[in-house]
Write a structure and sequence with these properties.
It is built from 20 helices and eight strands.
Length: 689
Amino acid sequence: MGAGTTKGTRAIPWVVLALWVGVLAIASPFAARLADVQHDRITDYLPASADSTEAAELQQRLPGGETTELVLVYHRDGGLTAADRSTAAEQVARVAGEHALTGTPEGIPSEDGTTLMYPVVSNEPGTDEKKRDAFVDAVRDVAHDEGGMTVEVGGAGALSADASKVYDSLGGPLLYTTVGVVAVLLILIYRSPVLWLVPLAVAGVADYLSMGVAYGLNQVFGTSVSGQSSGIMTILVFGAGTDYALLLVSRYREELRRIERPYDAMRAALRGCGPAVLASSGTVAAGLLCLLAADLNSNRAMGPLGTVGILCALAAMLTLLPAVLVLLGRRVFWPLVPAYGSTPRARRSLFAAMGTSAGRRPLTVLAGGAVLLGALALGVLNLPGTAKQEDAFVDRPESVTAMRTLARAYPEGSAQPIDVLTPTGRADATLAAARGVDGVDDVRRGRTGGGWTELSVTASAPPQSAAETATIERLRDRLDGSYVGGASAQQLDLKDTNARDRLVVVPLVLLSVLLILVVLLRSLVAPLLLTAAVVAVWCAALGLGGLLFGPVFGFEGTDPGLGLLSFVFLVALGVDYGIFLMHRMREESLRGAEPSAAALTALRTTGGVIASAGLVLAATFAVLTNMGLVQLVELGFVIAVGVLLDTFVVRTYLVTSASVALGRRVWWPGRLSRAPEPDRTREREAVAG
């Protein structure tokens, strides 16, 4: 019986490994096709119910489909010469001859004579992003500098093409950089030439599986996939997955010293840390799924893909990783092999020292931490305003420099049209009403089809200025039954919808996280403590961004979605470390440890793992700061800083000191809170010891 059981248990890791090979074989064809369904059209980011979204979708159904709008900008500081104007006309004529344009481009000179712009509109690319990018590149090949005259191609189409190039570049560099960062950290953490490869390889498997599942969701449910959401999914797989691996490997190493057979040691490790890992992943998944309540398409799409990444990482780290570790045996830890019956070398733990200092004066530590986080949070008041479309790039591409040239040369008007889609039967009345709106300089009739007519409105104010925003709002008030869109209207809708989404999603995230913590910890006080801690961390991290984004990074605005996305990720991911700490503290309390001793033991045994996990997670999100879009840099910075604050300030000092100060009340109203309070003298001796 015993021999048969042993043989059966030895076969289990091989069975798990074989199952994963089969899963990957099934997922492989789908994972390879994820890039084919990735889109970064403006409608993939716009609010689902906004005017600008409706306008963009109606434009796609007009004759010729979606249009690509460009502006060819010819400029010479000392003033354009007759030869310059002739060259510009020749280049524009060549563009018109090589591509199907809507109408004949007409040059519009600036009052100071330094600039000449040609609006160019084409429906040749349609909704195909690759064709749009190729069209923009072809126009740029024709419209080039000549004889000291600078030529730039701008407009909404050029901005979208430049943004698409950045998103296309995310896949490879983002993955390679993330893998490299995680590999370096794992080598430093494990100090083993072999062990670091195991969780890294398993995370790679989980990432590949997540790509296949994401493609399946797109095909079955129409879940949109963008460069931003797929990039974040990869970061979550490697960041959160490595965190789970660190916790499991640490607990497995402990059990190998107590238990002879690796299989039995792994079973004990899974029993010990499995509930915390499950609760941790459940918290993140629940928080991300709350994004389904968002109205912004990009936010809503982030929920399912992020959840897929977390669940694939969880499945791999709780099945494939244990199987591989058991098959490799103790030697995988070489040269620091945990021998059976051995005890780890006694040394003064940094986290034991930190916990001791927090335990001696818990109220003082709490007050000091609150002051620090509160001071950092004040930096939110210094956050730059909402970023304009041209502020979205870290390095300004040609489309942005073109818009800035236009803003200087045409301060009295807008070179970016406002699109109005109106029922064809009311087109004349809408055109007349639009011309009568304050702030409108000109209105032209465009395409007609499918019962709708397109009007192109030129505002008298610069794009995305307060005056142009007021004009858009007046158009929407006056033009009942019509949809007002275009680049500026889209930016306005993004800002307003993000504000609405924060009011809806933030309470949902807090409630879902709180409920999971209550179930796991069987308490109300501990979950409230952990939730308040991560909210404070979010405020402090966002405040630190406010102190650095403008003065240090030189950013001229913040992405309107920064607050919501950073909140969801920091709260959901930050609670992870609280779960690791409090779950171990609860284990020690159930074994009869006094409150202060339980807190100190929990910090001493999990502090190193939490610190390692925090460093890995912060480093993976910090990879985003090397990307070319301001929204990704800002998001990566806030999350990375927040994770570090949470790891080294909140978990080690504030949560520990609060737990010591509250004593058994931290477990109220659970049964642990009803145990008799211990003698305080003995507690202080336990903390000091």
